[in-house]
């Protein structure tokens, strides 16, 4: 297990290096970053000073080496917007994003498993069709539209919850529900499919012959044996949470890294944009690593395939 964990960690580090290289190449190919970051009427000396500050007046290979060596030690330069180290500014927003992600996940997974198992116990029944419709709605509804509708109903119409901001639980409910709605639908569909397939295996007939009820079979046996695809889609949804939080944080003015990223783009703050991309990529890679290690724990064959 330790060897597998070290191997997967090494692979994750390689992926992170690849992400950094891609970010550098994309920035290098979009045009002159200094021109993009400054107003059209900026004095030429200001433009030249910014190019020197960003190292854009160096040859390509030298600029690549200086940039990548700085990024590897966490030096993304200072934010042009706020005048502080860009990476530190991005990391300050991570707790807010993680809080929103964890609360959404803690709500989405139990609800999705409940819907999926209830559907799988009696496939084709009225309950199954109703729950399948709910899960399809979750997958189909756009996050930004749902967020605006929740604000309109619960904040504007009834005045029960704040429209935006950061603070106690009341500020967390609407963005967490918005972010959790689509994963509920997707995880529920995968859980239902995996459980229906598992319930057709021979050992299930043996358990039925022993007198176990369908609920007991699902909870104690089938759900555990079908955990791999459920964990797969759950890990994918966590990564989607981190990416999709950009939109949700903007709608609800949640002070996470998504809001900071949008602000950096609006102000053309290249060092801060690069730092935000790095932090989000690092969190997504960390999630994928945790999912891989969970595979190996639940299914030892994954260590051989990995």
TrEMBL record:
Identify the taxonomic lineage of the organism of origin. Bacteria, Bacillati, Actinomycetota, Actinomycetes, Micromonosporales
Q: Name one Pfam family in it.
A: BPD_transp_1
Family named by the database record? Belongs to the binding-protein-dependent transport system permease family.
Q: Which residues span the membrane?
A: 12-31, 94-115, 136-160, 241-265, 277-298
- Subcellular localization, as worded in the UniProt entry: Cell membrane
Q: Tell me which positions the record assigns to the signal sequence.
A: none
Tagged with keyword Amino-acid biosynthesis: no
Q: Which GO terms describe its cellular component?
A: plasma membrane
**Entry's SUPFAM superfamilies?**
MetI-like
Q: Which organism is it from?
A: Phytohabitans flavus
Instruction: List the molecular function annotations (GO) for this entry.
Output: dipeptide transmembrane transporter activity
Cite the InterPro entries for this sequence. BPD_transp_1_N, MetI-like, MetI-like_sf
Q: What is this protein called?
A: ABC transporter permease
Q: Which domain of life is it from?
A: Bacteria
What membrane topology term does the record carry?
Answer: Multi-pass membrane protein
Q: Which PANTHER family match?
A: DIPEPTIDE TRANSPORT SYSTEM PERMEASE PROTEIN DPPB-RELATED
Q: Which UniProt keywords apply?
A: Cell membrane, Membrane, Transmembrane, Transmembrane helix, Transport
């Amino acid at each position: 297990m330790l060897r597998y964990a070290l191997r997967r960690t090494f692979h994750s580090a390689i992926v992170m290096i690849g992400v950094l290289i891609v970010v550098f190449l994309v920035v290098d190919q979009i045009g002159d970053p200094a021109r993009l970051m400054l107003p059209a009427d900026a004095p030429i000396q200001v433009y030249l000073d910014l190019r020197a500050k960003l190292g854009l007046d160096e040859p390509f290979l030298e600029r690549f080496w200086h940039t990548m060596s700085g990024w590897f030690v966490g030096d993304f330069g200072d934010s042009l917007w706020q005048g502080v180290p860009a990476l530190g500014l991005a990391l300050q927003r991570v707790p807010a994003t993680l809080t929103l992600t964890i609360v959404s996940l803690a709500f989405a997974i139990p609800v999705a498993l409940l819907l999926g198992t209830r559907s799988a116990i009696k496939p084709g029944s009225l309950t199954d069709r109703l729950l399948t419709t709910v899960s399809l709605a979750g997958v189909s509804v756009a996050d930004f539209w749902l967020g605006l509708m929740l604000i309109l109903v619960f904040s504007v119409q009834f005045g029960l919850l704040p429209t935006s901001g950061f603070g106690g639980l009341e500020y967390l409910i609407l963005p967490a529900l918005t972010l959790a709605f689509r994963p509920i639908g997707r995880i529920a569909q995968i859980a239902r499919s995996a459980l229906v397939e598992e319930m057709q295996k021979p050992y299930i007939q043996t358990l039925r012959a022993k007198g176990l009820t369908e609920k007991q079979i699902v909870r104690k046996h089938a759900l555990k044996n079908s955990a791999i695809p459920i964990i797969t889609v759950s890990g994918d949804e966590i990564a989607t949470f981190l990416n999709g939080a950009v939109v949700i944080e903007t709608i609800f003015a949640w002070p996470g890294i998504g809001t900071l990223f949008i602000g950096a783009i609006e102000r053309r703050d290249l060092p801060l944009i690069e730092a935000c991309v790095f932090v989000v990529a690092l969190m997504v890679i960390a999630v994928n690593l945790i999912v891989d290690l969970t595979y190996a724990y639940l299914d030892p064959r994954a260590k051989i395939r990995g």
